[in-house]
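Quick start: what a row looks like.
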Amino acid sequence: MNAFTTPADFIVRGLRLPALPDPPHPLNGNGICCAITGQPISEGYPVADMVTEATAEFLDCFRGGVGGYVSEGAARCFRNADPRRGNPTARAVMIFADGTYYNPLISRASAIAQGRSYWSGLVREVWPARKGQQVLIILTTDMKRRLWPRARIGALGACTPMFCYDPDLGLNGVRIVDWGKLIGCLEVVEKVYSLGFPKQVIETSLYIASKVAQGIGLGETRALEREVAVWRPCAEFAIALLIAQKKGDP
């Protein structure tokens, strides 16, 4: 079985999560699968050892009842979800199979201040240099929710799975995006955003922002609206809208 084939394995490798103090239990018998990842396992940890009275969204994490087992990688992710350490396994991440780990922010200014990547820049940075490489991507605005059990691994390219969570944009699940198209969509959204159109307006119709439209002219607004309208039905649009930054901002 190949190493690092589940989101849990990618997170363990990317975050360099420590091994658990107690070794996994050997499992006798065939057909035993991890209750979180669904991957066949020959050793693991009881689900009952993972959960407490404070465990929320049990059915979103575990398949079946409390009598199953989870893989070592899944157990390391679950037990390292410690709010006192910043809840590291609930972060927004981009992790590649070689262990390269990014913990990007949406705000460019905040990311620069903290010496971190920001999504708009990172989306461009990895393309096309990492085209075809296996990657785990979780884009979220809620750093408290345990989302990695619902994420997927895939190749960076024309059918890249991204787990996206943002209630304001109705994002809550895996979206399959074309990376080249995502960058193209992002260019259009950021161009319009930089002209002063709010994101809520870009999402629906540029004509709503009448003062901005009057300032740049009706003809120019009409042309920009046509550009944006092409992208609105696409899977890439909400993602581009979420991560877009104004050109020229720090």
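That is the whole record. Strands lie at 25-26, 43-46, 69-70, 93-96, 101-102, 134-140, 153-155, 160-166, 171-177. Residues 180-243 form one domain.
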